[in-house]
Amino acid sequence: MGVCSIWLLMVLCLLSTLKIVTASVNTCRYPNVKITTQSSNHSDNYPSRKAVDGCTKQTFDEPYCCSHTAPGLQQAWWQVDLEGPIVMEYVRIYYRNETEEQKKRFGGYQIYQSNTSDWRVGHRCRIDRTSTSKELSFTQKIRCPGIAQFLTIYSDRRSPDRSWYSKKAILELCEVEVYGCPLGKYGKGTCESDCAAGCANSLCDPVTGECKYCADGYYKDGSLCIECPSNCNDDVCDVESGVCSACTPGYYGRHCYQTCLFNCKDNRCIQSNGKCKDCENEFFGSSCDECSSGCTDRVCDKISGNCSPCKPGYFGDTCNTSCPSNCKGDICNQNSGLCTACKPGYFGDTCNTSCPSNCKGDICNQTSGLCTACEPGFFGHNCNMSCFGHCNNDECQQNNGTCIACMNGYFGLDCEEECGQCSDVSCSRSDGLCLCSNMTHGTCGCKNGWGGTHCTTKNEISISDDQTETHAGVGVGIAVGVVIAIGLVIAIVVIRRRKRLPKHKDNQRESSSSSNSSKTMGNVESLPIPLGTPNQQRNNGDTRSEDRQVYVNVHNIDPKTDNDVVYNNIDVTGVPIHELRSIIDSKLENKASAFQVEFQTFPWGAERPHEAGKKTSNKPKNRFKTTFPYDHSRIVLDTNGKDIDTSYINANYIDGFENEKEYIASQGPKPNTLDDFWRMVWQVNSGKIVMLTNLVEGRNVKCHKYWPDEGESLVTQTFELKLDRERTYAFYVIRDISITLKKTKEERQVHQFHFTTWPDHGTPDTYELVLFDRRVTSYNTPLTGQMIVHCSAGIGRTGTYIGLDALLSHGKKTGKVDIPRYIRTMRTGRMNMIQTYEQYIALHELLVEGFNLQESLIFRVNFPAVLETMCPTNAPANQTRTHREFKVLKTLTPNYSLSCFKAALLAENMEKNRDKAILAADKYRPFLQSQLPNMTDYINAVMIQSHTSMSGYLMTQFPLVDTIDDFWTMVFDYSCENIVVLGKPPEKEAWLREEGGGFAAGNSISVKKLQDRSPNTELAIVDYQVEREISGSETIRIFSMSKWSSNSLLPPSDSSLLQLLEQLDSRRRSDNTRPVVVMCRDGCTQSGLFCCISNIRDQMKMDEEVDIFQITRQLKKRRPEALENVEQYQYCYNILGLYLDSTDVYVN
User: Fold this and answer.
1) Whether pTM exceeds 0.85
2) pLDDT in tens, 4-44
3) Mapping DSSP to helix (H, G, I), strand (E, B) and coil, where does residue 930 land?
4) Would you indicate the residue range of the signal peptide (predicted)?
5) Active site includes 791?
6) Whose CA is closest to 303, among 322, 317, 321, 323?
7) Which domain, by its residues, includes 760?
8) Catalytic residue among 66, 364, 791, 976
9) 591 and 667, same structural domain?
10) Whether residue 906 is found in the same domain as residue 988
């Protein structure tokens, strides 16, 4: 059997269960009439093409609707070429119906499907075996499932099966209709829907689109062909179950959804259990646990984890036990853990015993503990006895305490005896004789007036009478001197006796420490900070070193002395925030290699103990197998009863700049940790939760929904929760959640801030996240606990956001930021905070955006006063607040390069742009999806955010003659039901004009006017029924301000504009997910102002506050040419004031 026939038989399995319904098309005539042939012709009036001319009349009279083969032949056939593979559903035959003879000719007909004109090698899908001619109908509807390009009807009279058949083969076919769809298409009577990409060979049911077989890379799930799990190796999986035959590196499990351990070599693990096939360096075992931090260079045996050798400070097979703390150089025996030597001051095998307090240099014998030498003033094996006598420098023999030398003025073995009145205040130690400078002894060694062997005898003085008075005076002086000398001697004796008392070194140390305590420098980093002279310090309460970028706060300075100055809190480091932009630009060079290198210097993986997270009972509570909370900083929950495991949650405290435990970083709740999460919120008294992930991203569940829907309650083991209010914005959602402790009925309200546009492992729009952070920080709550931040794992997006919040606040206060330092701070609290170098770069960009963010938010109650200051009449126009704001606004408007407009600048698209200076950026343009043949997907339009939706408006130009079809394609592709028209297009370019009771609106578009709702002549509101052949019909409401001239920056009527906004808002309440088309002549000047005012009004109405500056900037980010005139910017303020006046919402 031929390949084609085998293929057709396979298709029969798919189509055998089809019900005959009119969902496909007559492919003989759609989309064009097909070519036919037949075995012979009766005459020129009855050629083969008559069977596909659309005429189902079954008689031979004019206009000759039937084909007719020549008579007198044994075989006859008729064939249609369908010009490509058709998935056939059924065939309808209209045979000539005039006499009974026609039934005899028709009987026994056969139908063949083939992929070539040689129908004989094709597949026969039908042979008529009607018993009698009476039973045979002239109109036949035959199920004929299969795929073929040619369909052939055949009559064979060589060996007829029935006696009532005609003797000769004649075919008289008035019409043949082959119903089905081209291969790859299905359904809706037009076959315009594409079969799913997963259908094998693009084959699907022409009615339902259901795939029978799935293509490579897909598997069957009910009626759908689902892509094999994204991590299947080579996209190969079981066609029935979707189980991967193998996983790509980094994943394991039946569907390869689970992540291999981080440390598997080449990221490969065993598919069935996730255990590593081999480990990266520094890891070991089937789970690739980290080699002990005590291994030298983190190198250990790949199987056992044993190390050789250990680095200083550790011992044991795996070097995971600390050496005794007093080992010298932190070195101990790897097997026993005994110290090889001790630090000064300790002895013993483990150096855990203190040396005697007076050992010299704190050194004693490691085994016995005996001092090898003593400090001055002490002797003995343990240096616990004071030296005898008056030893020079307090030094004596260690074994017996005798002085090595005597102090001046003493002699004797124990240096206890005092020398006489020696002139050099020294004498021989052995006999006490005074010493002379030439080392001889005798009277030359005595002081004047003293003599004797030891200079202890006072010489007598003879005084004459005439010298009495003089000597009497001298005598009195001497007497006084003697008294003073005696006093000095007594003082010296007392002091020296005190010195001979036993001395205690510990007391000396305490005294020394006490006396110096007032000179301690507290909390000072070891940086060379120029503090200046003491006087300068007293005069300058705050000393800075710009070179080191360190701020010094000086406290408790005593103006009388500089000995008690204490320097504290030297902790502000980093770079000035005004230099941050240039630093980023330099690091982005060479594909951001500087950022990548810098990011790799941060600690990665589990750097600190995390035993609680690895417990078997706690592992199911972890969302990821290798992301654990550090033990020292994890949130320890109050236990439920005596179950210690109920204290565990995968979350950590993160320090801020001014406060420890400023934030909590957490993984996203799982079904089995939902109650734990709310127990944490309750326990820390948190009032704010920041959520940075969506519940499902792609096909992966990122977080369990831990709040109820509005009007419903969610009950956990401990709490009952209710959603009080939910407000949806363009890129975030705010939820007010009431949480009630079931046990006590105490109730609190927690605010959840859910950022919805951050991709996993990716980076957010910096401007949007900074605005989101402003909203979070400005929100007040009476609950004083930490803000809880989570994404999925609680490390990547969570770390980036906490970094933004902390550094932004600190930088605004100090003027500087130290990003690497704070990342290390975060990673001290939780592993891998900020997960990728792209997120690291994003943090830098976020901070630049945050520091540049203008403080321009205005509360409703303050708006009247602000409005008066914006453009006072007595100030020059270029010096008003409006002008200053607008000037800043223009500096922040992006200047896109030509590479951002690739589609707009293509040759085939250039003429689609009305103004060549106003183009649609690729990043923000809508892509046409159902455009007419030979048309591109480009239209000069941009998607603009509304206050509540990322796709609020489609801002576009008036259609050109050649882009009207593109315009309606966009309307239908994006399901738009509202169009705002600002101005009036030229007559020759009218995209919707009335013609003879109908409307012209481009090719294949029909328009019917339904209802005119116009409130006045300045504002037209009309409903139309718009139908497009390939897209169906929509009821579209068109709002027109035709009197707003394209040459006018401002609308002609403020009241009409406000009325238009009110009417449009009312229309959008039912469904605000569909974008509103807003157009003007250039798609920018009037449209930009309208969209800006609409968002301004919506923000004030929804939030009781407005930020006109940021809303305008957000719009200009997507359409930089919008609001280019300060007059329009001022008008935004003025029209909002009129709106508030009209609704009487000013608050006194």
Assistant:
1) no
2) 444 444 444 444 444 444 458 999 998 899 999 999 999 99
3) coil
4) 1-23
5) yes
6) 317
7) 576-853
8) 791
9) yes
10) yes
